[in-house]
From TrEMBL:
One of its GO terms (biological process) is tRNA methylation. It comes from the Archaea. It comes from Salinirubrum litoreum. PANTHER family: TRNA (GUANINE(37)-N1)-METHYLTRANSFERASE, TRNA METHYLTRANSFERASE. Keywords: Cytoplasm, Methyltransferase, S-adenosyl-L-methionine, Transferase, tRNA processing. This is Class I SAM-dependent methyltransferase. Residues 90-340 form the SAM-dependent methyltransferase TRM5/TYW2-type domain. CDD domains: AdoMet_MTases. GO terms for molecular function: methyltransferase activity. Pfam families: TRM5-TYW2_MTfase (PF02475), Trm5_N (PF18093), TYW2_N_2 (PF25133). The keyword Iron does not apply. PROSITE patterns: SAM_MT_TRM5_TYW2 (PS51684).
């Protein structure tokens, strides 16, 4: 049957599908099909889907399009909603399903429904704490299964991650892709808070030489495994420790610095400036009140440059809202060029 569908490269398929699902635009009556490395995702409103895809394409307008195509009718699939009678909220990370339920009885009910549904799953966990400590990890209640390790696929990369040992957010895939698309082959990049490598690995795949530092030694072990897994180990240096204590080895080195530690990146701006070469772009992440989303970060960067002798011109390239974080607060990113 001829239906409107989004045509997208396979490596962008899950992110695009999730974006369309969040917008309520997926056509659940027809199958997603694939052909020669391209996915065709059925949608209920071609015009609205085109708008969503354009907003998410990150400048790759040739890679994503909406067209009419003959797609097969979908066989009935049992979802948790069908079993529960309501639509539960959950995230998927590989074969792990992540819940965020305050009521343990409700969490158990949802977990049982997920297992009974047609969703492929090995583990169901419920958040038992907020992100805590310098290592940014959570406690989890494992409701189904045993392992908290999974393989997450994102824009053609694979990340092995243990959510009980390291911080990782699949929700930031689109933002990571936005930044990664700016990287050119031959660049030297320093990721100050690298985790398991969701910035490091795709940047290295684009031909950059990348140093990834993290305070969590387990995260650094996974970073090394992921560099091997994705065939970029020769372009990745993984460093365990406080970036303020190890940065001396890369002073005046970086063409690009990633600072994804939103609650306290301002404490590390002087180190970022020390890492910067003659021309360097900082990707500075912050969480601020909507009354002044970007001012604190910009002031912190300009002050750090002044404290270092004022030898850089500072230009804000992009003021970007990543996502809502809390009532009246947003996670934002400043892309800032430093030029001697």
């Amino acid at each position: 049957m001829d239906v409107a569908c989004v045509r997208v490269p396979r490596e962008q398929g899950e992110t695009t599908r999730r974006k369309l699902a969040d917008a309520g635009l997926l056509d659940h009556d027809h199958e997603i099909t694939h052909e020669d490395g391209t996915l065709y995702i059925p949608v209920t409103d071609a015009e609205a889907a085109a708008s969503v895809v354009d907003a998410d394409a990150g400048g790759e307008d040739a890679a994503v399009a909406v067209e009419v195509r003959d797609l097969p009718t979908r066989e009935t699939q049992q979802l948790p909603d069908d079993i529960l009678g309501f639509e539960p909220s959950y995230e998927r990370l590989g074969e792990i399903v992540i819940l965020d339920e305050d009521d343990p009885d409700r969490a158990r009910q949802i977990a049982d429904a997920i297992v009974a549904s047609d969703i492929p799953v090995e583990t169901v966990v419920n958040r038992a704490s907020k992100v805590k400590g310098d290592l940014r990890v959570r406690d989890w209640d494992v409701l189904v299964g045993e392992t908290t390790e999974a393989v997450h696929r994102e824009y053609g990369c694979e990340f092995l991650v243990d959510i009980a040992e390291v911080y990782f957010s699949p929700r930031l895939a689109t933002e990571r892709h936005r930044v990664v698309q700016q990287v050119e082959a031959g660049e030297r990049v320093f990721d100050m808070f690298a985790g398991v490598g969701p910035f490091v690995i795709p940047m290295a795949k684009r031909g950059a030489e990348v140093v990834g530092c993290d305070l969590n030694p387990v995260a650094v072990e996974y970073l090394e495994k992921n560099a091997e897994r994705n065939g970029v180990a020769d372009r990745v240096t993984a460093v365990a420790g406080d970036v303020r204590e190890v940065a001396d080895d890369w002073t005046d080195w970086a063409d690009r610095v990633v600072m994804n530690l939103p609650h306290s990146a301002n404490e590390f701006v002087d180190t970022a400036v020390a890492l910067a070469g003659d021309d360097c772009v900082l990707h500075y992440y912050d969480i601020q009140h909507e009354d002044d989303l970007f001012g604190p970060g910009e002031r912190a960067i300009r002050q750090a440059v002044a404290d270092a002798g004022g030898e850089y011109e500072v230009e804000v390239l992009t003021r970007h809202e990543v996502r809502s974080y809390a009532p009246h607060e947003k996670n934002v990113c400043l892309d800032v060029a430093l030029s001697r």
